[in-house]
């Protein structure tokens, strides 16, 4: 026998189910009147510094069908690479957004400021990116991934560098479609499967 | 922002299998390739914070937060309470806990729910609260009904409340479900069965807590939640792998 480690284990995840909107974005679910407004309707407010960008995409299942019931959360730094709560962070960047796939088309849109590069431990510098967390019916544990931008220098990003199969790097990079507009699709399974993260 | 230590990696074996054929929707929504694992970065170690200004007086009372006039939600009145801790056993204070659930008949107030159990005009089905300084939270609600769902021909969800918890870091983000002690449908539920480790599933089953019940008013159920912790280190100045 040995001493007992006093480390607890994380509570297990369960799927968010088809009605996640009721709890997280109730007015999207047609449930009005409990809260004044849904949480996380925008990651920025008027006056946010930096380039405003719009990212549009869909979440596809293994058959190529765009999910109509996905909910996504995003978290990011401001244009200078500072996270909300850090010293000198932009007060007009909450950094957090909740958005859902459209009930008809399955398409989502995120409007935000493009984040700056962020500094990690040990001098690591990460290229501009937005962290995503995706939940839906059939997803048993929320999926983490990231949006990078094709018009940024991603060559030295420590996370992208860890992806062994180089073509898969592209699954994390939003493609510019016009000034300030990007396309970023998420593929849960199969051809072009998005790199999902465990970090 | 001070460095409070690296987030402990997720023990993936403590969580459900992504691919679980008895839960049919997971078959086409489970990634088939391994996750990319690495040490957490600032994007995971920071996270949104929500203040008390967000929370309305009735937000954690689902019996009353959608009711009109003197009306109350129909059902067995319950109090659901517990603590949010991290893996090191420390309380997680001032963190947002959101819940959603079906009404006493097993019906959600959602455009996509077509089950013929009636809607309760006084029940919306969502609530939220912040934990206190010791990580405690509580909700007043009604016990949700079990409901049938389109999976295998005759699958029923056990009575459950959906929970969403933030913690203080985006990498702690968790959505789960609370079940009720003694519900025979837990054993038959393919969603509950996605958790391979039986002791982990047991942690989602809230025991009846008579001590915290109130006579002639409500029964209590206790549901504690553990989020990822941070590794405390005295020496952490070398790059990973060096
Ligand atoms: Fe449910």
TrEMBL record, chain A:
Residues 46-190 form the Intradiol ring-cleavage dioxygenases domain. It holds the Pfam family Dioxygenase_C. InterPro entries: Intradiol_dOase_C, Intradiol_dOase_core, Intradiol_RC_Dioxygenase, Protocat_dOase_a. CDD domains: 3_4-PCD_alpha. Keywords: Dioxygenase, Oxidoreductase. GO terms for molecular function: ferric iron binding; protocatechuate 3,4-dioxygenase activity. The keyword Oxidoreductase applies. Belongs to the intradiol ring-cleavage dioxygenase family. This is Protocatechuate 3,4-dioxygenase alpha subunit. It comes from Roseivivax halotolerans.
From TrEMBL, chain B:
This is Protocatechuate 3,4-dioxygenase beta subunit. Residues 80-108 form the Intradiol ring-cleavage dioxygenases domain. It holds the Pfam family Dioxygenase_C. It comes from Roseivivax halotolerans. PANTHER family: DIOXYGENASE, PUTATIVE (AFU_ORTHOLOGUE AFUA_2G02910)-RELATED, INTRADIOL RING-CLEAVAGE DIOXYGENASES DOMAIN-CONTAINING PROTEIN. GO terms for biological process: 3,4-dihydroxybenzoate catabolic process. One of its GO terms (molecular function) is protocatechuate 3,4-dioxygenase activity. Belongs to the intradiol ring-cleavage dioxygenase family. Keywords: Dioxygenase, Oxidoreductase.
